[in-house]
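Supplementary Methods S3. Complex input for the zinc ion-bound model.
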Amino acid sequence: MNQDMVVCNCGAQTIIKTSWTSQNPACRFHCCNRAGRTCGFVSWAEPPMNQNPAVMIPALSDTIRRHEENAREMAYKISLRDQQARTLARQNRVMKILLGCTWLFVVMYYICR
Ligand SMILES: [Zn+2]
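Predicted complex, serialized as structure tokens:
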């Protein structure tokens, strides 16, 4: 199921929240995104966890693995953005120097003619 396509009773796209109740710890659910007056729509994003530790532990391991994968992906994207920022900063410095040189040439032109 594509989680981005869940629509509530208002016809709007839902947001995903995480339950931290003792009955459903760390379970993600879709709910209405309207501030204030929600339509009350709630639907599990994934089946509620089985309370059996033999089932729960592998499921939690999967969740941890998914989050670690996501964190690695984010760290990679951040490193790419940092690299782009450094490149842009370098280009910015070069452009400022070129602009300064251009102004210097213009001033020299008017002084020396
Ligand atoms: Zn709604």
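Strands lie at 15-20, 25-31, 42-44. Residues 53-112 form the longest helix (60 residues).
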